[in-house]
Design goal:
The protein is mainly α. It is about 65% helix and about 10% strand. Strands 1-2 form a two-stranded antiparallel ribbon.
C-alpha cells in the first residue's frame, strides 16, 4: 500500500497515513512472528520484553501478567513456551537474588536483528533528515496520538 500524501488541512489523508503505518507494522509483526515460529500472544510478549530490555528496563513474569491482562499462571506458561523456544531466559536480578528477570536470549537478539535490523537502520536514516523544528512537532503529534489511543484526553480536550 502506498503512503497517503496529505496537505496541511487534509485530516482524512493524515488519518489514512496513520492507518497505513499501523497496517505496515502489523504486516511486519506477522512476518516476524512467523519467522520466529511463535503464536500471536507469545510474539507480543517477546516484542514487549525486548522493547523494555532495549530501553534499559527489567521485566518479570508479574509484569507480563499486568501488561497483558492475564493471570500469573498464564504469564508463566507464556514464559515457559518462549524459554523452550530459546527466545527468553531468566536471569537473577542484581539487587534481589530471589527475583528472576526475563531477558531475550542472544539467539533471539540475533534473529530479531536479522529480521528487522534493516528496518531500524532505514528508520534511523529517515529520521536523521528531520529538522529540529520538525522533530519537536512530530514528538508533539505522536505524543498526542499515543494519548488518544490510550483513551486519554487529546488536543480537543474531549
Amino acid at each position: 500500500m502506498e503512503l497517503a500524501v496529505a496537505t496541511a488541512r487534509d485530516s482524512k489523508a493524515l488519518l489514512a497515513a496513520v492507518d497505513d503505518v499501523e497496517d505496515a507494522e502489523r504486516e511486519l509483526d506477522v512476518r516476524m512472528r512467523d519467522g520466529l515460529g511463535v503464536n500471536t500472544v507469545d510474539f507480543a510478549v517477546l516484542r514487549w520484553v525486548d522493547r523494555v530490555h532495549r530501553r534499559g528496563g527489567t521485566t518479570r513474569v508479574g509484569d507480563i501478567a499486568a501488561q497483558f491482562g492475564v493471570s500469573s499462571g498464564s504469564a508463566t506458561e507464556i514464559v515457559h513456551r518462549l524459554t523452550r523456544a530459546g527466545l527468553l531466559h531468566r536471569v537473577v536480578h542484581p539487587a534481589d537474588a530471589r527475583v528472576r528477570r526475563l531477558v531475550p536470549t542472544e539467539a533471539a537478539d540475533a534473529r530479531l536483528c536479522e529480521m528487522v535490523g534493516h528496518v531500524r537502520a532505514d528508520l534511523d536514516a529517515l529520521l536523521e533528515t528531520v529538522t529540529e523544528e520538525e522533530e519537536r512537532r512530530l514528538l508533539q503529534l505522536l505524543g498526542s496520538i499515543s494519548g488518544i489511543l490510550r483513551d486519554q484526553r487529546g488536543p480537543s480536550g474531549r
